[in-house]
């Protein structure tokens, strides 16, 4: 599939209206890294760190993790890698962790909630990341932040570990970026101070959509019931874009929907300027963006909203067919 888009690989995702979208890739394995060059991604917008915890029957050691993260940074070269701290619980259960009997694991003790309540593993992981960076920039994002306090506490944990490493005489990262994943609707309504403090925000669209519509992303009965291009959801995304713009904080979107060309186009039309997706999606998404006008797509969306459409998909599809006829 990547072969097909080889001719545009090194070209920017610039739409015919002149707007450029940054395309980044999602990764989780060392084996994903060669795709950085192959796909033409600008960087790794989401590095999921769960896999190294899931494939073992014990918590990985700090040294092992630091070595792996260093190899990821080596392979990425000058490109930015956003490491997401451990996002376990819900659908991702560690074999060596006592399984809690939670009635609603997706709404339960997961991700940053575990990291803040039982900080040992998260702090070890943060130390590993700091050691891996050694004189290079380090970008860390915390999953599933639902309120400002959680971001503050997680950020402080990372700053504490930086201080500790400094006292131990270790070489620190040359630059530190600390972000939050916006995966619960509540965070979109956090105080302005949250948006001012975050170095960047990344929308976890898979979780955000499931909580926005109260529709389990794992449940086939309801999974596809609500269209991502539903007017309510797109309007909500635009509000997030606006809040980030007010605080001048960098925003990206890293859920699976970012890798679908029509969804990507509509996200761009709502003001998103950075998308992170599976490497194989970069070509198709770039092709879509380069062939269309984001400004015109926006006009089509506005008309569909005015018409009271439930989803903008039919209107966008019709417009695209007319465009490319
Ligand atoms: C998301 O929720 O959109 C996301 C990127 O994280 P994950 O799919 O790993 O929950
Ligand atoms: Mg998520």
UniProtKB/TrEMBL annotation:
Coiled coil: none
Phylogenetic lineage: Bacteria, Pseudomonadati, Pseudomonadota, Alphaproteobacteria, Rhodobacterales
Similarity-based family: Belongs to the PEP-utilizing enzyme family.
Protein name: phosphoenolpyruvate--protein phosphotransferase
Protein's cellular compartments: Cytoplasm
